[in-house]
Fold:
Amino acid sequence: MAGLVQALADLVLPAACAGCGGDSPDLNYGVCPPCVRLVERLEPMSARPDPAPEGLPPTVTLGEYGGVLRELIIGFKDRGRHRLGRPLGGLLAEAVVAAVPPRVPVLLLYVPDTAAAARQRHGDHMRRLATLAAARLRDSGRFAAASRALTARPAVADSAGLTQIQRAELAQERFVVRQRGIARTRDLAGQAAVVLADDIMTTGSTLAAAAQVLAASGISVAACATLAATRRRLPGLIT
Structure:
C-alpha cells in the first residue's frame, strides 16, 4: 500500500523536485527549472562497454548515469513519480532519433520488467517509456510503434562476483519471446528499424541477451537506446 499511496500523492499533491529534491513553486512534471535546463542540455552519444558482450548492437544513450538524470530515472522507476514518464519518454525518443537514420520507420521494443517488479511499480516502467517515446516520434512526423516482444523471468542467481561471460549467460536465461502477438511484431520488424530500449546500460549484458533472444526468433535489432549509461563500466563512453 505504501507504493500506491506514494503514487496517488504524486498525482494530486505538490512535491519536491524529483531531480534535486529542492522546494520550488514552479515544477514542470515534478522537476524544477534548473534541473529541466540541465537535462535539456544533454545530447545523445554512442556508448559501448569495454569489453562489450557478444551480440550487443550499436547503442546510443542520452547521458551518464548520475546527477539529475539518475534521480529522474529512479524517481520514475522506483519512487512513484509517474509524471516523469512523459519527459523521460521524450528523452528516450531523442536517443532513438540519434540511433536510426532520418525518415526510417522505427519499431521500439524494450527490456521488460519481471512480473514481480511490474507489480511493485504499478506497471512495467519500460513499457510506459517505450509507448511514450513512440508517441513523441509520431508527433514529429515519423512512423513509430512500440511493441512487447519479450517476457522477463525472475533472476535465478546473484550476478555479483560473476565474470563478464557468466553475466552474459545469466542474462540470456532471463528472457523468452512472448508468443502472443509475436507474428505481428515480426511483420512490423520487416518494415522498420528495430530499436531495443532500456533505462540504464551497465555491462551491456542485458541488452545483448535480449537482442540475441529476439534474433533467434527472427527479429534483428538494429540498435539499442537507453536513457543513461554508467561511466564506471563504460571507459569508452564518448563525450
Observations:
- The longest strand covers residues 193-201.
- The radius of gyration is 17 Å.
